[in-house]
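Interim report, section 4.2 (structural modelling).
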Amino acid sequence: MTGTLIARRVLMAVPTLFGVTLLVFAMAHAGGDPAVAIAGEKAPRATLERIREEYGFNRPVLVQYGSWLGGVARGDLGRSYKTRVPVAEELRQAVPATVELATAALLIAAICGIGLGILASLRPGSLLDLAVMTVSLVGVSVPVFFLGMVLLVAFQGRLPGGGMLPLDVEFEPSRTGMVLIDALLAGKPGIAAEHLRHLLLPACALATIPMAVIARLTRASMLETLTSDYIRTARAKGLPSRTVVLKHALRNALVPIVTTLGLQYGTLLGGAVLTESVFAWPGVGQYLVRAISEQNFVGIQGAILVIAATFVAVNLAVDLLYTRIDPRIAHA
Amino acid sequence: MKRMRTAVLGLLAAVCAAGCGKSDPSVETGTIVYGRGADSKSLDPQAIEDGESVNVVSQIFDTLVAFEAGTTRVEPALATSWTASADGLSWEFAIRPGVQFHDGTACDAAAIAWNFRRLLDSKSPDRHGMGEPPYGFLYEGIEGCEARGAAVVFTLKAPNAAFLANLAMFPASISSPAAVGQWKSDYGRHPVGTGPFRFGSWAPNQKIVLEANAGHWGGAPKAAKVIFAVIPENSVRLQRLKAGELHIIDGVSPSEFDGVRAEASLRLLLEPGMNFSYLAFNTEREPWNRPEVRRAVASALDKKEIIALAYSGAGTPAVNPLPPTIWGWNGSIQDRPYDPAGAKKALADLGVAGKELDLYVMPNPRGYVPNPANVGAVVKQRLEAAGLKPRLLSPPWEGGLYVGELKEGKHDIALIGWITDNGDPDNFLFTLFHSSAIPDQNHARYRSAEFDDLVSRAQRETAPEKRAELYRRAQERIFEDAPILPLVYMPNVAAVRANVEGYVLHPMGLVRLKGVSLKK
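Predicted structure of the assembly:
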């Protein structure tokens, strides 16, 4: 059954991704002359003409699209106009940084958000509930850029203000691309620890919004579940409150929370543009922003395609996770 | 489970311990950290056009001749001396003996000639897919380049007085032929030159590390190591400079000047630059084809007001289309006084009161205008006060859209500017106003046979004083005809930690870190 579900979802993803490529290609090429983007606006006409010839910009747009799509099918996202490095290679370096940041942020958001949501749901209307809801409202409302700056100033001198490692440390994450895992695999816990220190502030800044969303959702979901008959029965049986809340209520309340966590993770993996900019985190978001500002069309197309594919993959994973939490969904 | 918990606790303990008792180790290790907004694109000098790449390349490579500190005159570098033939078509450079690339190979006349062949020949196999050099156009006047014994000889297609200045520019940096052959299309990530610093490592979008070349022909650099760190946000970069994580930063916006000045641990460096912003009248359109209308508009604007509102006070009113930092600048021209009432009356007398016009203002900050929207607002207001009806238009800058519309002549008046390529007056006056530059950079679409003759003669003239005189007369012509209204000369800016010594801003915006050290 699960195999059929996966196959169906993967097939559904193909037209979605195809649509994304078409849209992104059209949008990227509506923005101006790529030859000027490559050579700069000072370049004389003859230089621009040579560049159009060299890159094939003088071919019909559909032919250019077909050529790019053919490359994508072979795993070749093209070469960056600016760096002349394959886009796939540049993204291979950027994606692990975003995965690390997004995962750390999601962990913080899940642990704190679910914890706060449960606490608030146990005493609805209490001062604690009010405090949790206020914090979550602020969390959703404060712009990440502003929060990042506040964190930078507040922790100046105590926690690093950006980057993945201290500037004087040389370490190349060559196995998974993720510094934390590669440093541990290489037997360098000192570097892993330094990396965690660098990860802390951006992950906290990035976690604020999903944490607030999860806290509110957990509270609402738990409040609904805690008033169910089977919970009343469990309490009547004399089960300890801890068991009732964590074992019986939380499991049922988790379904919408997992959905939201999955969607949030997909969004976070799409590149936390502002957080990555503030904390100089070299992930997909920063890559995409730079590609856009440089009119690096192949970079834009490659990055958005990877983001879209990630989003689709995470959604698929969430769907599969449902079936574990609530087996009825698999049969629906 | 227990083991995992122990591992997590151990890691957390290490995290806490790693943060304790840290002090800036840079002073002891002699490491200079330079903070900038974006990463370099490539470190192959011939493949680049962006400042972030040029700033790093300038540390790794040498050129045949170099710009003197503080000026745009050239001095010997890899060439110790040079001579030009009487007709200005042949130039011979004596090459400094005994210089080696960072990979140990010899930087001799043959290697240098090889570099220029790679630059000039679009079919050169040594380009290894590099593509068209973005700044190759500066060298299109070179017919050929060959090694003759210990000398390199250039043959030019026509006399070109800016030739020497172009040789001091980054695309003319000398790479190791062996390294280019070894790394091929990946050479831009593994550059090898003869400069004061050698390439160390590159973590994309994070940092580039350079190490001192103690055997540099001009003496060893003072710092042992230089790190170019990427911090995209201006305000964050400044914050990290204050925190002591960086030593030098660029991209300080004028609104932050007072904040930097107020910090005892920081210094703000401001030096006159080689740029200017201006309003270009479309002289092919009625009524801007009449010089008297253009001169009247010039009196309607207060440049000091623009500097106060759009440059946060940083900048100097521009009079000529050539900044005072460049030789040949005509200091005797007195600007037209700000006279709003007189301008309004003159425009009414000329029959253009109530004239509707398209005022183009770029949406993004440029090196010569940090806040174009404010400039546009002030200009619009003053033109309205003078009885005109301007309509603001801001096509996107990216992809050449803004400049593209100017090249098509869609504007009545447009805000634009120029930053020098090579520090030569020709790069302002010929490039921006010669009739052959329509529709490229001559956004005013200005045509004057007298002006064309002056700047063309200056291009062929090799005697510096005679050239300067021709350029002074050309500026008088521009002032009289007023095809443009020069607005502001923008200074070059950097902020440094107070303990940084020896960092001097070059008027061309060149970053030179060889003489920089940290005071203990």
